[in-house]
Specification:
- The chain is α/β, with parallel strands linked by helices and 167 residues long.
- It has one domain: Rossmann fold, CATH 3.40.50.
- 32% of the residues lie in helices and 14% in strands.
- It has helices spanning 39-46, 55-68, 83-92, 114-123, 156-166; strands spanning 26-30, 71-74, 99-104, 130-135, 145-147.
- Strands 3-2-1-4-5 form a 5-stranded parallel β-sheet, covered by helices on one side.
- Helix 2 (55-68) packs parallel to helix 5 (156-166).
């Protein structure tokens, strides 16, 4: 488990329609509930000091995407929502909206575990050179997995582990 905190303000950008499709080589498999929506963010929202996402996690994910040129693949129950809705929520929470063109793990095999969904996605994308998965669900023995808690979400130590997997 990781534990520490750091805050840096994220920015919001997206791939524009009509742009040539990127060929991302670094991918972050991102769960939302737990890594991004934490106990802290829920409390802050209840007292009117926050939106939905944990501000620490938001800043760290934006930094990771921007500095390492990584792309998000949603590996969460949120993957059944339309991408436009997810992008809107990310922008509202000041998180960089940098989603892989194949932006979510499979919804075709609902009985697949999250670990199996990630492995299936990777098998279809040989262009991906490095990846990391962050989740509050235990995805062991998945390599490149960073386990977070609902209480703290993505912390500074988790961020450092993610950087090491994505370099």
């Amino acid at each position: 488990m990781c534990d520490h905190s750091a805050i840096e303000r994220g920015i919001s950008v997206g791939v524009m329609m009509g742009d040539e499709a990127p060929s991302p080589e670094k991918v972050l498999f991102l769960d939302i509930d737990g890594p991004m929506i934490t106990q802290r963010s829920t409390f802050l929202k209840q007292i009117g000091l926050n939106k939905n996402f944990d501000p620490v996690a938001s800043a760290l994910v934006s930094t990771l995407l921007r500095e390492l040129d990584a792309w998000i693949v949603v590996s969460s129950s949120w993957r059944v929502r339309p991408l436009e809705v997810i992008e809107s929520i990310f922008r509202y929470n000041k998180v960089l909206t940098k989603f892989h063109p194949d932006w979510r793990t499979t919804v075709k095999h609902p009985k697949f575990s999250r670990r199996e969904q990630i492995l299936e996605w990777i098998s279809r994308h040989p262009e991906v050179k490095s990846w990391a998965a962050v989740d509050d669900e235990d995805l062991s023995p998945l390599s490149n997995f960073v386990h977070v808690t609902y209480e703290n979400g993505i912390t500074w130590e988790c961020f450092q582990e993610l950087v090491n997997h994505l370099r």
